[in-house]
Design brief:
Number of strands: 2
Distance between the termini: 127 Å
Strand content: under 5%
Radius of gyration: 48 Å
Order of helices and strands: HHHHHHEE
Strand order of the largest sheet: 1-2
Shape: rod-shaped
């Protein structure tokens, strides 16, 4: 009586008896069935084992040969590992971009970016407007006049006069020049004791 273990379930043996029904596979795999097998069955199983091992070895050799052939074809086509990585990355990136989660995240971030840009633009416009309003305000005009008057009087006292009075920018420029001259060497004493710039 031959039992084909590949086609017969463990719990249905010929003759109607119940076999290893409900047993753990590890217990079955580690069990010793050699005492229940006849010599003829043992020889058949050994022959089948040798045949399976030979087939596995042959399949490994065929697979190895096919892998070598694949590498040769890729080399002839100019494909290398870097190109494959690029292609895989591109495909993965494309696959990710087509997912619903990516699309929703992209839409949300894009919308948030547009709102942030608009908000920054509005803040910048408001600040520019405020500076313009401040420069045209009476307080700033008064401050500008006071600075101009102070600088003019300082220039007159130090020795340099500008007949037209000059604009605010000219006054600041001349004050900066006077400051630079004093930083270079300070005022020089003339021979008769006067200060000169």
């Amino acid at each position: 009586m031959d039992i084909d273990l590949e086609t017969q379930p463990l719990d249905a043996h010929p003759g109607g008896t119940m076999g290893l029904c409900g047993r753990d596979e590890d217990t079955v795999a580690s069990g010793d069935f050699s005492s229940t097998l006849s010599e003829e069955e043992k020889e058949e199983l050994k022959a089948e084992l040798v045949q399976l091992e030979d087939e596995i070895t042959t399949l490994r050799q065929v697979l190895s040969a096919k892998e070598r052939h694949l590498v040769e074809i890729k080399q002839k086509l100019g494909m290398n590992l870097m190109n494959e990585l690029k292609q895989n990355f591109s495909k993965s990136w494309h696959d990710m971009q087509t997912t619903t989660a990516y699309k929703k995240t992209h839409e949300t971030l894009s919308h948030a970016g547009q709102k942030a840009t608009a908000a920054f633009s509005n803040v910048g416009t408001a600040i520019s407007r405020k500076f313009g309003d401040m420069r045209n305000s009476p307080t700033f005009k008064s401050f500008e006049e006071r600075v101009e008057t102070t600088v003019t009087s300082l220039k007159t006292k130090v020795g340099g006069t500008n007949p037209g009075g000059g604009s605010f920018e000219e006054v600041l420029s001349s004050a900066a020049q006077a400051s630079a001259q004093s930083a270079e060497g300070g005022p020089r004493r003339a021979q008769d004791g006067e200060l000169q710039c």
